[in-house]
Amino acid sequence: MLEIKDLRARIEDQEILKGVNLTVKPGEVHAIMGPNGSGKSTLASVLAGREEYEVTGGEVWYDGKNLLDMEPDERAREGVFLAFQYPVELPGVSMSNFLKQAVNAVREHRGEAPLSAVEFLKLMKEKAALVHLDPSLKRRAVNEGFSGGEKKRNEIFQMAMLEPKLAILDETDSGLDIDALRIVADGVNQMRSPERAFLVITHYQRLLDYIVPDIVHVLVDGRIVKSGGKDLALKLEDLGYDWVKEQADAETLA
Amino acid sequence: MQTTTERIERPEDRFLAAFEVHAGHALNGNGPRMQALRREALTHFARLGFPERKAEAWKYTNIGRKLAHPYALGAPAPALTRDDLAPYAIPGLDAARAALVNGRFEPGLSSLDGLPEGVVVTGLAEAAGAHPELFERHFAHYADYRGEVFTALNTAFTRDGLFVYVPANTVVERPIHALSLLDTDADLFLQPRLLVVVERGAQVRLIESRHARTGTKTFTNGVTEIFVGPNAHVDLFTLQDEGDAAAQVASRYAYQEADSYLATSTITLSGDLVRNTQNYLPDAENCETHLRGLFLGRGTMHVDNHTLVDHAKPHCYSNELFKGILADRATGVFNGKVFVRPDAQQTNAYQENKTVLLSEAARMYAKPELEIYADDVKCSHGATTGRLDAEAMFYLRTRGLTDGQARRMLLLAFARDVIDEIAVEPLRAHLDRLIERRLP
Ligand SMILES: Nc1ncnc2c1ncn2[C@@H]1O[C@H](COP(=O)(O)OP(=O)(O)OP(=O)(O)O)[C@@H](O)[C@H]1O
Ligand SMILES: [Mg+2]
Questions:
Q1: Could A76 and B399 be called an inter-chain contact, meaning their C-beta atoms sit closer than 8 Å?
Q2: Residue B325 forms contact with A (CB below 8 Å)
Q3: Architecture field, domain A2-88+164-253
Q4: Which residues of B touch A90 (CB under 8 A)?
Q5: Cross-strand partners of B323
Q6: What is the residue-averaged pLDDT of chain B?
Q7: How many CA atoms lie within 13 Å of B280's alpha carbon, on the beta-carbon side?
Q8: CA atoms of B438 and B415, how far apart (whole Å)
Q9: What is the pTM (predicted TM-score) of this model?
Q10: What are the domain boundaries of chain A?
């Protein structure tokens, strides 16, 4: 479904991704861990199409298409979803108007008819319940005045509305208390399916108790330096990243 | 050295020469006071002259270029039917309608039945004859025809316009819609006048919408006077949409007595050059004043909003919000002056101007001017000009919205707080649709 080959990207004059390789198959959940500033959000942003980043090398294939050739909205309509590490507040844009346009843009692309007002409200109600969001939020402006936890749940809610094929969750667990974490993880787990893949970026092994990954990758200084099973996350939490870095450095030397 | 003795005709001269011709058929009931007033206004006009480029109040607005055009000063009235006005109706709005064509009141195109007892909505010329006492008590009492050249010119030449009178303690439930239409084959200079008198404890909502059926060059030099009596409540919504060839200077003077409320919204959707000069004088205690504005500029459009809130008495509140969206080579000007005079203790005065620029060539000149001479007051102002938030654009696009859809959504959201304050629901919905369609 997703094939990243030797991806390099920079912002301003700083090279941040220095040759990322990653293959994700439908139905899989991949976790990406790594120290602050190692390039996790950069990878997510490049996949979603953020223009500030300049791709300087490599390829990204998504469902047989060249992802890097597509505009951010084309990627979204093709089924790529990014849950933001810092969701954006949109004063004056109501949740319902925002989601209606988003859902119908995606539906149109799939050759489906736009939802009627009634169908849309029903869908909103159903998906909001998935992440325990108060249905009255549909009248509120997107993320404006939302608590940190509400913003994160709102990202998962949007994901549920848009039903992507590839969901990238950038630290959706950071700052959540255990109840909110369970709610978010439940929401994600209910969406797991053989056709859908997840890229879960996190600093905390705790999330991976709830969203059990197939593979854990460690991103250090713009490269994936280690991949392994879910036990790798436990080890990282216990020992930190230094041992992975040392091991990686030793391998490069050898 | 060579000197030119040839006299260069100034635009002023054409008006001065035309005065004698036009003065004869000015307002009805042209009593001696009105005659004298006109002559006095003309004298002030001659003395003041049109603004020079270096005049501070006109620094960014080159009005001279527009005034140099040889407009006709009068034109035959076109014969219009109600059907001709239908495209300018506001869908779903239940309102009394006063129609003006080329600045003249058209009773045959108006629908003024069902107004409460004592309420007068009629042409200004008609009102001058039919209600001389009322008319003379208010006409030219608030407008600065001695110090402001366009107001002086309008006062010297006023022939018609609209008169709205709401007697004490009368609540006009249905809004009054003043629909002004330009329809001419000539390049025309018009000078309509609106006089609104709302007495003690009365309440009214006025909608003023201006449109054009012509593509000829027009210049509208309009003056509006509003008297808001004690404890009276007035809402005024103005929609300026006269098309790409229409220049206008719209001067508004509002006078408020104690405990009164006045809210105005000025929505500018089109025009070649639009200058709104708005002066508010809450001249008694406990007045509340709201000034709102929204302007959309594209092409080479120029929109200039000059406002003055002159707080003369204590315990008053004013709140001003002007928002603009400028594309292409459009320019905007906002100059918001707030005076708080020494007597005006416990004044709360707020002002905000925000503009989004959608192109490199679009320009905004914003200048807030607060002059505070009282010490126990709360005042604030802010002016921001910038582009659409890139992060917000990206967020929307990752949800599947195209660049165009995302832009529209954010621009509509930007305009939201001005639109949402429009308390007449069908008008609010109409503006919502109109603005969405007309976003640059
Ligand atoms: N807009 C930007 N301008 C300049 N440098 C940037 C920008 N965005 C990111 N960087 C830099 O790129 C590097 C990688 O940042 P990135 O946000 O991808 O890290 P991260 O792994 O997501 O970190 P965290 O765990 O803190 O979220 C950092 O050194 C950061 O300072
Ligand atoms: Mg990050």
A1: yes
A2: no
A3: 3-Layer(aba) Sandwich (3.40)
A4: 392, 395-396, 410, 413
A5: B294, B354
A6: 93
A7: 31
A8: 12
A9: 0.91
A10: 2-88+164-253
